[in-house]
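To: structure desk
From: M.T.
Subject: fold request, one chain
Message: Could you run this one when you get a chance? Sequence is below, nothing fancy, just the single chain.
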Amino acid sequence: MCRVFRLDILESLETLQSLLKKEQDVRKRERLQFLYWCKTGQGKTRNALGELLNRSQFAIGQWADTYRAKGLQGLLHLDYRGGNLAPTIPVEIQWQLKDQLAQPEGFTGYKAIQIWLKETHGLDVPLSTVHGTVKYRLKAGPKVPRPHAEHHDPEAVEDFKKNRAGQPRANINPLFRKIFQYSVLDTRRKPVRSENHYPTADHPQGGQALGQGAVAI
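Reply: Done. Structure tokens follow.
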């Protein structure tokens, strides 16, 4: 069982909410969100905070140590060298991405998601990170368009579905219904033989009518 994560946040919830609304840097917003969730108690363990922020427990511990030693300004100070600078998708942008994936148009592929992150949020995220985040964390995926004919008309397809849905099943072509009934449904029926073509022990090829000692098989 994970131990409860304790971190005394000096700032009030109102102050953290105000800073979150004003901050434009996604990495600083991520750290402010970390403080906010610690303050509200939504993340009571390092593991829970790591799941919420898509960060490792080690990174959560580093942020906590920095805040204890240098306060809010030290936590938001990003001018440092070294460390793991691998790109990541902040949790708020993950929520936006999940909303986009839920739309009917969605994305045509993981490359399209990568381009959207770059153009919309200025994030250079490797394609492998995009794939892992979308598939395993968001439990989603890009929309794969179905193949259509060259002159496919979506509006005509929708009109056909609406008109077809309103028609009762009795409107099916009677000729087709009759053909279907006798060619498919009756395939297990034995063929009908004329009465003088039943085979018997004496006449294997048939030729003796019933009632004259013939046994139908």
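Reply (cont.): The chain has nine helices and no strands. Let me know if you need anything else for the meeting.
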